Amino acid sequence: MVARSRSNGSTAGRIGIMAADPGAPLPGAPDPWAPSDMPGRRAGPPYAMTEMIEAEPALAGRLVRKLTADPGLVQVTELILDAVRHNRPVTITGCGTSHHAAMAVASLVADGLARAERPSYGVRAEQAFELAGRTPSGGAVIAISHEGGTEATNAALRTAGGRTGPTALITVGDRSPGAALAATVLTTGEQDQSWCHTVGYLSPLIAGVGLHAALSRSEVPPDALERQVAAGADGVIAEDLATGLAGTDRLLVVGSGVDYPAARELALKVEEGVRLPATAHELETLRHGHLAAATDRTGLVVILTDGDSRGADLHERAAAVLRAAAALGMPSVVLGSAGVADVADWATAGRHLVDLDGQLARPLAATLSAVLPLQLLTERLARARGTNPDTIGRDDPRQAAAASA
User: Fold this and answer.
1) What gap in Å lies between CA 113 and CA 62, rounded to an integer?
2) Does 282 reside within a domain?
3) Which residues, 6+ apart, have CB-to-CB distance to 399 below 8 Å?
4) CA dist list (Å): 222 to 64, 115, 308, 309, 342
5) In this model, does residue 173 exceed pLDDT 50?
6) What value does the mean pLDDT take over residues 227-239?
7) 177 prior amide bond cis, ω within 30
8) Alpha-carbon distance 256 to 279, whole Å?
9) What's the rounded Cα separation, in Å, for the pair 289 and 291?
10) Mean pLDDT of the chain
């Protein structure tokens, strides 16, 4: 077994980069709008992704302060409440990283409604292309798109009624094609400088935190939010975990409840940034046939930040997955909260455990606590395997051709 590891405190000196000023605001969306260019290819770290990760704790605090004074947050909140009052669905949508953020935001919106004793069963996330292909059934559609140019997401907004329907877009700026389609635009204001999106994942999560607070009629202390994000900023632990997984030929990533969107996001980040095959499953699903193809060259990452949400049952199922991996000789890692140390004892390649801030509602703390650990693990795996995460492989002409096919 591996010694327990826990993160807490500021990011200073812990991620291991030399950013000019990680507390400074990032550039906003271009005006006039244009899609971002591929980041310049750096010979080695720090990558743009590295710098984005270090910027995230301060960004989280800035963004939640901005949102509390943003009329757009009030408008999106009312959009949700109006749908709930009329027993209509609330669908949150996106593609790729934005879809994973949509899954997490849907969970936060549902919890915020439940805390206010309002029905939350109609809140769900759906991939944008699938949503665009269905006949609209009424209700609210909230799209997430970092730059606002994703074709499938914009098609979903059109299908939902665009400016004449109950639609909203969470995005960087208000000049994009997507912003022109939505009735309400909630802007996050600072644009990711890497194509291996990190800020593009955290920013809509912070918008979800703002919606949770508005729906539950509560307040979110910005300092606590910043502290929670920063608690996962331990590059030394991430490097140790990456060393244990670097020799694998594929990764399996699992999570339950609020941890499943994070599992999906980690699998995507690893495939984009590391160019290592990775697949995400819900925790219990992994035990129903998927381990038949696993070998000692298959790595496992269990994300378990909200281990107390279902108590001993969830702990035991997670431990069973780790025991199964050990029986197959698979290197395994746990990214979780400090409360799951008993489960993490079964991990064979290490753990990154983060304290949950008591000033935040548990779903908020759990959701945010996984962000930097999963991103840092990706970045350190990219270093270990000699890949540049920023370009997501598109400096290879074949990958560039595939992306534009």
Assistant:
1) 25
2) yes
3) 392, 393
4) 6, 20, 24, 24, 31
5) yes
6) 98
7) no
8) 15
9) 6
10) 93
For the segment 43-49, the average pLDDT, to the nearest whole number, is 95
Amino acid at position 355, single letter? D
Q: In terms of domains, do 148 and 294 share one?
A: no
DSSP for 114-176, written as a single string: HHTT---TTEEEEEHHHHHTS---SSEEEEE-SSS--HHHHHHHHHTTGGGSSEEEEES-SSS
Q: What is the pLDDT of residue 134?
A: 84
Both 235 and 380 in one domain: the answer is yes
| Dist CA 173 CA 179 (whole Å) | 8
Which residue in this structure is represented by tokens 């302060």? Answer: 65
The model's pLDDT over 316-361, given as tens digits with 9 standing for 90+, comes to 999 999 999 999 999 999 999 999 999 999 999 999 999 999 999 9
pLDDT for position 41: 87
CA dist list (Å): 303 to 222, 321, 337 = 25, 12, 9
pTM: 0.94
Name 250's bridge partners: 298
Instruction: Report the CATH number at residue 317.
Output: 3.40.50.10490
**Residue carrying structure tokens 């998927």:** 290
Q: How confident is residue 9, by pLDDT bands cut at 50, 70 and 90?
A: very low
Domain end, chosen from 200, 221, 242, is at 221
Range of the domain at 67: 52-221
3-state secondary structure 292-313: HHCCCCEEEEEEECCCCCCCHH
For residue 115, the number of C-alpha atoms closer than 13 Å in the C-beta half-sphere is 19
**Which single residue is written with the structure tokens 């984005």?**
52
Tokens describing residue 333: 């890692």
Q: How many residues does the chain have?
A: 405
Where is 251: in which H helix or E strand? strand 250-255
